[in-house]
Specification:
By secondary structure, this protein is an all-alpha fold. The protein has a single domain, classed as MetI-like (MetI-like fold, Orthogonal Bundle). It has helices at 2-26, 28-31, 63-99, 101-116, 119-130, 134-143, 147-160, 164-171, 176-212, 224-231, 240-267. The protein is elongated, with a radius of gyration of 22 Å.
Length: 278
């Protein structure tokens, strides 16, 4: 009980941090007083002041406003990616684990094929050919991000499908869809939620990395990785321009990872890694 209470307190603490980040992302205009894309060449690289608490960048744009609006971009991309990947991966895992046999073998071999490819290199190639931008990032990261959900859900379904209440439901003539929705899915949703919270940080890091390389979210849209790319030229003269977006990325990823880690322990979900075939 003491350990569970500790996990609950940690969940609440990190949950407050995430709630604040979500509110900032949903209502950036409440916290930002300037247009994050409006350049003011007369106020380049200004020091922090009342008007611009974190100063301005090389184009005279308010750094704090760009950080705030950058949160919206990062959380929107990561939210869209995890929603798509979690939905598709969970569906594949449910079908594979519940029906087994040839269906299971075919689906898991497809998963193995996807896992064999270096996803980051293919992501770089895709955005290099078709261009960056929010839409292309969501498409390619979703295409390579569903396998973990499929493996974990399948692993959980294999341990659930032979329970007596599911066998009894089958014996009473219940359809497979009914059993999956009513009995199987509720037993795997905990693992899916934990993976989602831990995958958001990974997606944010990938998005920022691609933007830093210049193939992610395109200017003038404010995004933390692109802000790092912009600021690298001024590392020796204005290192804080790299520090601010770097801290934003670090804090956000840590918040999601610690929240997911404590949620896993609180829900006592044991298997949230890539599960092997059973």
């Amino acid at each position: 009980m003491k350990k569970r209470s500790r996990y609950k307190k940690a969940l609440m603490a990190w949950g407050i941090v995430l709630l604040f980040l979500v509110i900032v992302a949903l209502l950036p205009s409440v916290f930002a007083s300037h247009d994050p894309e409006a350049a003011d060449m007369a106020n380049q690289l200004c020091s922090p002041c009342k008007e611009t608490p974190l100063g301005t960048d090389h184009m005279g744009r308010c750094v704090m406003c760009r950080l705030i609006y950058g949160a919206r971009v990062s959380l929107f991309v990561s939210g869209a990616v995890v929603l798509i990947t979690a939905t598709f991966g969970t569906l594949v895992g449910l079908i594979s684990g519940y029906f087994g046999g040839k269906i299971d073998s075919v689906l898991m071999r497809i998963v193995d094929v996807f896992l064999a490819f270096p996803s980051f290199l293919f992501t770089l190639a895709f955005v290099g050919i078709f261009g960056g931008g929010t839409r292309n990032l969501i498409i390619v990261m979703s295409f390579f991000g569903w396998m973990r959900y499929a493996r974990v859900v399948r692993s959980n379904v294999l341990s659930v499908r032979e329970n007596e209440y599911i066998l009894a439901s089958r014996g009473m003539g219940a359809s497979n869809i009914y059993n999956i929705v009513k009995h199987v899915f509720p037993n795997v949703i905990g693992s899916v939620i934990v993976i989602i919270t831990m995958e958001v940080g990974s997606v944010i890091l990938s998005t920022s990395g691609l933007s830093f390389l210049g193939v992610g979210v395109q200017p003038p849209t404010p995004e933390w990785g692109y802000m790092l790319n912009d600021a690298k030229v001024y590392l020796s003269t204005k290192p804080e321009l790299m520090l601010y977006p770097g801290l934003a990325i670090l804090i956000t990823i840590l918040a999601f990872n610690f929240f997911g880690d404590n949620l896993r322990d609180f829900l006592d979900v044991k298997d949230t890694n890539f599960g092997g075939d059973k």
